Amino acid sequence: MSEQDPVKLMKQQVGKAAADRVKSGSIVGLGTGSTTAYTLQYLGERLQSGELKDIKGVPTSFQSSVLAKQYGIPLVTLDEIDHMDIAIDGADEVDPNKNLIKGGGAAHTREKIVDSLADQLIVVVDSSKLVDKLGSTFLLPVEVIPLAITPVMNKIEKLGGKPTLRMGVKKAGPVITDQGNMVIDVKFDSIDNPAELEKTLNNIPGVLENGLFVGVADVILVGEIKDGKPLIREIS
Ligand SMILES: O=C(CO)[C@H](O)[C@H](O)COP(=O)(O)O
Fold first, then answer.
1. What does the pLDDT read at residue 7?
2. Is residue 34 marked as binding?
3. Which of 70, 108, 125, 195 could cross-link with 211 by S-S, CB 3.0 to 4.6 Å?
4. Angle, to 10 degrees, between the axis of helix 62-70 and the axis of helix 34-49?
5. Strands, E, within the chain: which ranges?
6. Of 128, 109, 139, nearest to 32 (Cα)?
7. In this structure, what CATH number is given to the domain that contains residue 172?
8. Residue 219 and residue 180 share a domain
9. pLDDT of 45 higher than 50
10. Is 177 known to sit in a ligand binding site?
11. Is residue 1, in this structure, part of any structural domain at all?
12. ipTM for the complex?
């Protein structure tokens, strides 16, 4: 990807805009993905310049803990904190009610735990992620305990979904999550009631968590390009 790639530029701008909202002394949930990677980079730069002091990060994945260490962001676990001021995370789809599909990086289980504990969740996306209805462009990720893959897929088919086991890239066999589980990606013809589907899926024995985030996001920062220039739109 070149430096001029418009999607990369939007991700960079929006990732930075979110990092600029973090205040000194905050405990910060650190999201996963290529957009929040920029947030972590800019948080590290703000720390290094001394403009930002004394923050602690709670990683949502192996990826975000590696990046946090690389950028000098001190980490804490959920056992060590009694609150979280803010979390910044990406998304694969955002609907007009600020409901999300997440899990493109197979990290949605830890992301949902961390994001929903934060006083404020800021979601950072480029404009291609905005949809009228969830499930229109992205399959819904579901993390499943390995021994239950077949019964869970059968049950999802009975619910009208078309499940596919997510396979690794540069790795033979399925994607294995940070928790040691597998991910199925499900095509639903229409997700009319995301809150109900979120509960229905999580109620299937063997499902750990699905990628529907309903009522969790407070603010969406959208990176856009207008007249050749990047700009940030806020939905709150
Ligand atoms: O949910 C996620 C990982 O599980 C990511 O936040 C989501 O896939 C967006 O990623 P990116 O910023 O790379 O587009």
1. 86
2. yes
3. 108
4. 30
5. 27-30, 56-59, 84-89, 93-94, 100-101, 118-126, 140-144, 162-165, 182-187, 207-210, 212-213, 219-226, 229-235
6. 109
7. 3.30.70.260
8. no
9. yes
10. no
11. no
12. 0.99
Residue 37 Cα to ligand 1 middle (Å) = 10
Tell me, yes or no, whether 84 and 186 share the same domain: no
Identify the residue whose C-alpha is closest to ligand 1 atom 10. 33
Is residue 77 included in any domain, yes or no?
A: yes
49 and 91, same domain (yes or no):
yes
Q: Which listed residue (111, 143, 198, 209) is catalytic?
A: 111
Is 157 catalytic? The answer is no
pLDDT in tens, 78-132: 999 999 999 999 999 999 999 999 999 999 999 999 999 999 999 999 999 999 9
Is residue 63 within 8 Å of 94, Cβ to Cβ?
A: no
Q: How many CA atoms lie within 13 A of 47 on its CB side?
A: 21
